[in-house]
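Supplementary Note 3. Input sequence used for the single-chain structure prediction.
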Amino acid sequence: MPAAAAPWLLLAVFSGTLISLQARITGELAAGLGGDGFAAAVISFGSGFVMLALGLLVLRKPRRGVGLVVSDVRGRRLKWWQVLGGFGGAAFLLAQGLTVGALGVALFTVAIVAGQVTGGLLFDRMGLGPAGPQRPTRRRVVGAVLVLAAVGLSMADKLGGGFPYVMLLLPLVAGVCVSWQQAVNGHVKNAAGSAYAGTFFNFVAGTAALSVIFLVHAVAAGIPSRLPTEPYLYLGGLVGISFITIAVAAVHKLGVLLLGLCTITGQLVGSLALDLLLPHGDTHVTAATVAGVALALAAVSVAALSGTRRGRVVASGDASPARRRHNLQTRR
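The predicted structure, written as discrete structure tokens, is reproduced below.
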């Protein structure tokens, strides 16, 4: 990589640490809400949606991008389910709120990475992303197997003793959902010609899904009796917007594979640092957890540096974003 790419490498790793930070914030918010992870998730995602919606009031280009996406969905140039990528983000936030307190950020992140790598292999083969179908290489398959082994290693000293195995499944599934989210969000960004507009639709879908889930849960179990007073617990949405923005900007400089490697590296290192330096709840970092994180890092390196061929970008509509923007302005 040229020296000019070094700042982008550091930013990409930093964005991964922000993902771990969001996991900790959401987990602590859930604890402050009496263990209500549903409320924590909807507050975190909803705050991000409100910030983006307010931004649309003053930013002209993203507003045009929103109009282009709506036009493409109506014209069936963009499939309706491709604008629902926020459901993957909703699953991620929900898993954070429900499991981080019991699993710890490090083990939660290893499980998320396992789901991301597995989902990435599957969705690349299906051609769900803008690059079209990509055959999995031998190294990627080996990397996926190793990262699953990392999950088992991380929980090796937790077997028995009432370990919450069911909770471990939630971040695994959420990781697969995150891979699906990244794939379909690429089509929305292509249609909008604006990363901001693509992010906005992501938060719209995620907030809607989490709101419905929260209301159903509230009917059955009630709502939290009080809100935590610590201001930092309400920064999850802002943190989410930050790491998504960095990823959108850095992908053009680094490419998808190197960006993914740097981001997951930041997630794993950041999560381990949080659990070591700022422990929360009853979670403890053990030698097995550290070994699991190290194995996951090695597995991600094998999977991401596999030398896959670039696929062609599949357009989301029948014209380029710039051309459709011109047509939309002409109609107006």
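Confidence is low (pLDDT under 50) at residues 308-332. The radius of gyration is 20 Å.
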